[in-house]
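From the methods appendix. Each design record in this collection lists the tokenized structure first, followed by the designed amino acid sequence. Records were kept in a plain field format so they could be parsed without special tools. The example shown here is representative of the layout used throughout.

RECORD:
FOLD TOKENS (53 positions):
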């Protein structure tokens, strides 16, 4: 199930990337396209909230 794509920012390197959203609500683990570190992006109603940790 995909909720489409969204734009979010990596908290490690600050890089902004487009990622597939795979959940409606929760914390989605993403591997940064730039620094390859993992971070958790908060998702609400199938959209990134912009809060990442
Ligand atoms: Zn990064």
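DESIGN:
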């Amino acid at each position: 199930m995909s909720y489409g794509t969204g734009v979010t920012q990596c908290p490690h390197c600050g890089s902004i990337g487009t990622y597939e959203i795979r959940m409606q609500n929760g914390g989605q683990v993403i591997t940064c396209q730039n620094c390859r570190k993992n971070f958790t992006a908060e998702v609400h109603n199938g959209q990134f909230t912009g809060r990442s940790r």
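APPENDIX NOTE: Strands lie at 5-9, 16-20, 26-31, 38-44, 47-52.
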